[in-house]
Amino acid sequence: MTRAVDTDLAIVGSGFAGSLLALIARHLGCSVALIERGTHPRIVIGESTTPLTNLFLEELCDRYELPEIRNFSKWGTWQRNHPEVGCGLKRGFSFFHHSLDGSGIDPLADRTRQLLVAASPHDGIADTHWYRADFDNLLMQAARRSGAEYFDHVLLNDAAESAGGMELRGTRHGCPMAFRAKFVVDATGPRGFLHRALQLGEAQLPTMPPTQALYSHFSGVERLESQVLYHEAPPYPVDDAAVHHIFPGGWIWVLQFNNGMTSAGVVCTDETAAKLGLSAAPRPQCPNPADREAHDAAAWQRLLESIPALRNQFAGARPIRPFIRIPRLSFRSAQIVGRHWALLPSAAGFVDPLLSTGFPLTLLGIERLAAILEEGPNGPDRSDRLSDYAVQTDADLLAAADLVGALYASMDNFPVFVALTMLYFAAVSYAESAHRLGKPELASSFLLADHPRFGPDLRALIRQSRCISTPEQTARFAEDVRRAVDPINVAGLADPDRRNWYPVEANDLLAGAHKLHVTREEVESLLDRCGFRQMSSVEA
User: Fold this and answer.
1) What pLDDT does 537 receive?
2) What is the pLDDT of residue 285?
3) N or C: which end of the chain has fewer CB within 10 A?
4) 370, 65 Cβ separation under 8 angstroms
5) 327 secondary structure, DSSP code
């Protein structure tokens, strides 16, 4: 006999996004079914937050009265209130450029091969890496306490739309189940449940090269800074960051948590993967799981051997779980919404983890869907608002893909790569400042793509970056970027005198007050509200 569950809202996927949306929907008075294929706790990637991520999380928690979740929006309040929940300290973005052939200069000793961009002035208001096994489980439990019905071990195999909503069918522990809901949200990630069940098809991300990924979680990873002798103090400890090791055609991430675990992996183009022996192609010849694991572990070790700094850092490390392969990383769904369903941005598309864009895009999507849910199932303009949601979600995805695709194309020219990142950091720091100053209308789109001056410059510079072949062109491009970001530069970026090290300094924001249409006094007040000058890591 089929068990039937009837709710206002069914959310497929109980990761952080699905569970957070369930909490918001319960606050709005919706009955919610939260449906999970696996069970908690489970390890997933997608771990590193940004200032925009934490700003959007704060705004959602304030709007929908989730004060306990708000504590997780910065390192200080997280450690003071929930030290038992694993996370990592993220003070900024660290980039190191490697040649892989042994001919290049050691990037740990040469600032021209480094880029350090701070995101906070001290630990108290710093960003975090989410140890998702702990954090997702906490959010799911909070959703259950709020009244959401939670079902794990559910294997959904069909979805059908009707005049009154959706019906999802599957099994739980071998027994048939049906979920009938007025509206369904898919939070299962790229190529997820609704994408498969409704056969939505894929659209192209024309500016992104085909990429693949290999990753795991490790214990026993040393800190990179133990290999570096700095003559000047860097803007923050280089390991307390999202650490990126860039090489032509790919990059490696290293994220360290406070529970002894480290998330690390590589993303590279298919061409580069084949050259480095990282390609997933030989794995079908290894039908035995142990053989596949040995193949992947050997590929990872070969990569480490080509980068001395990482070889030393991982000398005593061991993976705590089998390596995970993603043979095709980037994704864009051909359809994002229907009459009674929507894909969260994390299910609608994915570009690359290079700039940690996934979290803010997903939280933007939750904000937009929550506003639609507030209107109720019979809101007069729900169809139009869902269409707008789809357009906005796809536009944000394409904007991120354009920039990240250009970064991949410049991974063999680090000065161009650095200049391109200035476009990103200028846009997001301006957007965060505008929101915190009560001026959200100044930053109404991701990466300020609709900004009347910066938006066209952003697109033109991305195109220009793909045509650079000489040192003279590289120098001109860096200058063009400096001019383009000037109207929105409130963080002292693109300044050659800073030699690729960018601290967070109050004077930069104060000097840019006029760009945000506020006074210096209003900026001073913002700095006080945000705890900018509080130096304790647990008092902020």
Assistant:
1) 40
2) 61
3) N
4) no
5) S
Positive or negative, the Cα torsion across 454, 351, 125, 70?
positive
Helices 454-465, 382-409: axis angle to 10 degrees equals 40
Residue 132 neighbours by CB under 8 Å, 6+ apart:
15, 16, 42, 43, 44, 45, 46, 47
Per-residue DSSP letters for 34-94? EE-SS-SS---S--B--HHHHHHHHHHHHHTT-HHHHGGGSHHHHHHH-TTS-EEEE-EEE
pLDDT at position 378 is: 66
How many residues are there in the chain? Answer: 540
pLDDT at 540: 39
* Nearest CA-CA partner of 233 in 386, 118, 372, 74: 118
Cα angle value 325/329/334 (rounded, 5°): 135
Our separate counts of H helices and E strands in the chain read 17, 20
The phi, psi pair for 427, rounded to 5°, reads -65, -45
Residues of the chain with pLDDT under 50: 536-540
> CA end-to-end span of the chain, whole Å?
54
474-487: per-residue pLDDT in tens? 999 999 999 999 99
Q: What distance in Å separates the CA atoms of residue 446 and residue 361, rounded to the nearest whole number?
A: 8
Positive or negative, the Cα torsion across 169, 33, 17, 172? Answer: negative
For residue 86, which amino acid is it?
Answer: G
Domains and CATH numbers, the chain: 3-83+131-204+331-382 (3.50.50.60), 92-125+209-326 (3.30.9.10), 413-529 (no CATH)
What's the confidence (pLDDT) of residue 278? 86
**Positions of E strands within 211-292:** 211-219, 242-247, 250-256, 261-269
